[in-house]
Fold:
Amino acid sequence: MKAAEKNAKRRAHYNHLERAVDAEAAKRFHEPTYSQRIPHYVKQVYEQLELAAGLSGFEIAGLRDRRTGREYYKADNEVHERKQEEEP
Structure:
Protein backbone atom coordinates (compact mmCIF):
# COMPACT_ATOMS: atom_id res chain seq x y z
CA MET A 1 0.00 0.00 0.00
CA LYS A 2 1.43 3.35 -0.99
CA ALA A 3 1.81 6.26 1.42
CA ALA A 4 -0.85 8.28 -0.41
CA GLU A 5 -3.37 5.45 0.00
CA LYS A 6 -2.56 5.16 3.70
CA ASN A 7 -3.01 8.89 4.15
CA ALA A 8 -6.36 8.80 2.36
CA LYS A 9 -7.56 5.96 4.61
CA ARG A 10 -6.27 7.76 7.70
CA ARG A 11 -8.01 10.99 6.67
CA ALA A 12 -11.28 9.13 6.05
CA HIS A 13 -11.00 7.49 9.48
CA TYR A 14 -10.45 10.83 11.25
CA ASN A 15 -13.32 12.42 9.31
CA HIS A 16 -15.53 9.53 10.43
CA LEU A 17 -14.47 10.07 14.07
CA GLU A 18 -15.23 13.79 13.80
CA ARG A 19 -18.75 13.09 12.52
CA ALA A 20 -19.31 10.38 15.15
CA VAL A 21 -18.93 12.91 17.98
CA ASP A 22 -22.16 14.75 18.66
CA ALA A 23 -21.00 18.37 18.43
CA GLU A 24 -24.04 19.71 20.30
CA ALA A 25 -23.52 17.31 23.18
CA ALA A 26 -19.83 18.20 23.30
CA LYS A 27 -20.72 21.89 23.57
CA ARG A 28 -23.18 21.23 26.38
CA PHE A 29 -20.61 19.31 28.43
CA HIS A 30 -17.68 21.53 27.39
CA GLU A 31 -15.86 18.56 25.88
CA PRO A 32 -13.58 19.27 22.93
CA THR A 33 -14.33 17.54 19.68
CA TYR A 34 -11.68 15.30 18.14
CA SER A 35 -10.09 18.09 16.08
CA GLN A 36 -9.99 20.43 19.10
CA ARG A 37 -8.08 18.05 21.35
CA ILE A 38 -4.40 18.71 21.99
CA PRO A 39 -2.33 15.93 20.38
CA HIS A 40 -0.66 13.56 22.82
CA TYR A 41 2.79 14.13 21.31
CA VAL A 42 2.49 17.88 22.05
CA LYS A 43 1.81 17.16 25.72
CA GLN A 44 4.76 14.77 25.90
CA VAL A 45 7.18 17.15 24.17
CA TYR A 46 6.05 20.03 26.38
CA GLU A 47 6.65 18.01 29.56
CA GLN A 48 10.12 16.88 28.44
CA LEU A 49 11.16 20.38 27.41
CA GLU A 50 9.87 21.78 30.70
CA LEU A 51 11.98 19.31 32.65
CA ALA A 52 15.12 20.10 30.64
CA ALA A 53 14.55 23.86 30.82
CA GLY A 54 13.79 23.73 34.54
CA LEU A 55 17.15 22.14 35.28
CA SER A 56 18.84 25.14 33.66
CA GLY A 57 16.56 27.72 35.29
CA PHE A 58 14.51 28.50 32.18
CA GLU A 59 10.79 28.40 31.50
CA ILE A 60 9.01 27.30 28.33
CA ALA A 61 6.68 30.09 27.12
CA GLY A 62 5.12 28.16 24.24
CA LEU A 63 5.54 25.76 21.34
CA ARG A 64 4.71 26.10 17.66
CA ASP A 65 4.17 23.06 15.47
CA ARG A 66 6.04 23.60 12.20
CA ARG A 67 3.82 21.23 10.26
CA THR A 68 0.44 22.64 11.30
CA GLY A 69 1.43 26.14 12.43
CA ARG A 70 -0.55 25.77 15.65
CA GLU A 71 0.85 27.35 18.81
CA TYR A 72 0.54 25.77 22.26
CA TYR A 73 1.10 27.20 25.74
CA LYS A 74 0.68 25.93 29.28
CA ALA A 75 -1.79 27.37 31.78
CA ASP A 76 -3.51 25.84 34.79
CA ASN A 77 -1.18 22.79 34.48
CA GLU A 78 -2.80 22.01 31.12
CA VAL A 79 -1.52 22.57 27.59
CA HIS A 80 -3.81 24.82 25.52
CA GLU A 81 -3.85 25.88 21.90
CA ARG A 82 -3.29 29.56 21.21
CA LYS A 83 -5.85 30.89 18.76
CA GLN A 84 -4.40 32.27 15.53
CA GLU A 85 -5.15 35.89 14.74
CA GLU A 86 -6.61 36.29 11.29
CA GLU A 87 -4.76 38.66 8.98
CA PRO A 88 -6.90 41.10 6.95
The longest strand covers residues 71-75. The radius of gyration is 17 Å. The chain is about 45% helix and 15% strand.
